[in-house]
Each structure stands twice: as structure tokens, then as C-alpha cells.
Amino acid sequence: MSAADPGFRHLLRMSDDTGLFEHARHAVVRRDHGYCTDDVARGLIVASREPRPARRLTRLAECYLAFLTHAQDRSGAFRNRLTFDRHWSEPPGVGDWWGRAMWGLGTAAARNAIPWIRDEALHAFVLGAEQRSPYPRAMAFAGLGAAEVLRTRTDNTVAASLLMDAVEAIGAPSEDPSWPWPQPHLTYANAALAEVIIAAGDLSDDRQLLTTGLRMLSWLSDIQTRDGLLAVVPATGWRQDTPRDRYDQQPIEVAALADACATAAYVTGDDAWQERVRRSVAWFQGANDAGVPMWDPATGGGYDGLTEHGPNLNQGAESTIALISTMQHAGRLS
């Protein structure tokens, strides 16, 4: 492992035989905050993306899959938060955690190197696909899982239906050329919305839908680039026709943009999208508004946010997985 590669060291540190802890104080796990389905699903995604996983990474995927199947009820909904003493603190639902669980299960069903994990993940995905969420982002995350399934199982009607319902939930972008987006504000994981539309257009051979998604992503990428550097919409979000804050920039935004641009590169074969993936990689390496690296080489952990005073040095699960996910794309760049 090179000094430039965070690997899975901190993800292993943040995990136990139950799941993945949500928070850390610097690199030290905050067990009192417990686990959440959101982050376990993210962990399953990055573990399943590795084509030749080491044994301990396979064990992580097994653990994360077991957590998600335990979180899922008979209707296909998911519980989100599990305390350290293994008690669910919330009832099953279809919020963002349902969408991310579906994304994780879809990715594992399509990409995991272990056949039985693929089979079990698909079983849980199909059950979860009986549900729909009223929240566009939850539907977008679930749609990304459906797209993963369809890339390897083109005749899976359950995944196809979920993917198109996700497109409908996201909605059509505004006709305003200065804001070609389905909503009047940008909040979190924004690029996921464009990525779903791109994937749906490609998988359904709908050129108009594909063009719409690419146009959305191009605009989002352009407005988040300043002087050649990535400067993502901060945690406070950004509403049309209002001033935009510079900080607190979140790693999840960078990772979502890298994912979407990598999908665009795969679908179109256009190397310009790979260059946009490189901007996300560079953001973690220090090509950002503060000029500082956004991860700790000593631990392999990703910092929790870019503030006006520099990095938030806490290394939670979401930020660490955002780092790993983006660096996985870096390893595939030509």
C-alpha cells in the first residue's frame, strides 16, 4: 500500500463483528454513537467494488450484508440506527437509509467477488424493491442500486421498474439555462440525481433521458469548479438566486460527483469526464479551497469536512468511505 493510497485501514478500524460505527473523534471510534444502516450500506458498496478483495475485506462485506438483512423487515423497509448494545432505536422506514441500503445491496448483487454474497444481496434487494419512498434522494440512491443490478441482469424487471420510478421521483430539470436542475436548491449528494438519470437513459436506450442527465451533471460540475479546483456546495446547501457559502464542504459531495462522472465516462467513452473524476481525487489530495489534504495518511481516515479553518479532523465512516470510493475511481483512471 502506497502513502498515496488510504486503503481500507480506517474502515477496518471503524468496524466490528456487528457493523460499522458511525462516528469517530479524530481516528478513535465513538462507540456511544452506535451504528447506522446508511453507513453500513456505503461500506458494502466500496467493499463490493473491489474485484480481488483480501480475506479481511470479504469478511467486512459479509458483516455489512448481515447487518442490512437484520435491519430489513418483512415489508422490505429498513431500520436505521442500532445502539452499541444492539437495540434498534427507530422503527423500519423508507428514508435515505432505505435508499442507501438498496444501493449497497444492488452493488453487492452485481459486483461482489463472492457468489453467495451476490445471491443473498439480490434476495434482500428484491424484497426492498417492494417499497417506494416519498423522498427523491432516497429514490435516487435506490435507483443507483437498481442500475447496478440491471448492468448484470438486463432482464430484471423489478430493478427496471425501481430505476424508472426513481427517475420520475427526481423529476424533470428546469428549462432555465442558468439552473437546469429539478429543484430550486442543491442540498446533499447532489450528483446522485444526475447519475440516476444518466444510468436510466443508458440502460433503457433513451437518448433524450441520457442527454438530460449529462446536461445536469455538466452544469453541476461546472458550478462546483473554481479556478480549476473543485469547490463543492457546502453543507448549508445553495438555493437558486441566493449567495453561496464557501464552507463547510463535505466529502460526500466530492465522492458523489466522482461516482457520477465515472458513470458518465463509462457510458459515453468521453475522456473529459475522467478529467472531472481527477478533480475529485485532487480535492482529497489538497487541490481545494484551503489547499490542504482531506485525509490522514497515518490512519487512512477521511476528514469530516473542509471548514474555513481547515479540515475537521474527525474521521467518521461517511467521510472515510467517500475517500475510499473516490480513490477507487483514481485506480481505474487511464
From TrEMBL:
<protein>
    <recommendedName>
        <fullName>Glycosyltransferase</fullName>
    </recommendedName>
</protein>
<dbReference type="InterPro" id="IPR008928">
    <property type="entry name" value="6-hairpin_glycosidase_sf"/>
</dbReference>
<dbReference type="GO" id="GO:0005975">
    <property type="term" value="P:carbohydrate metabolic process"/>
</dbReference>
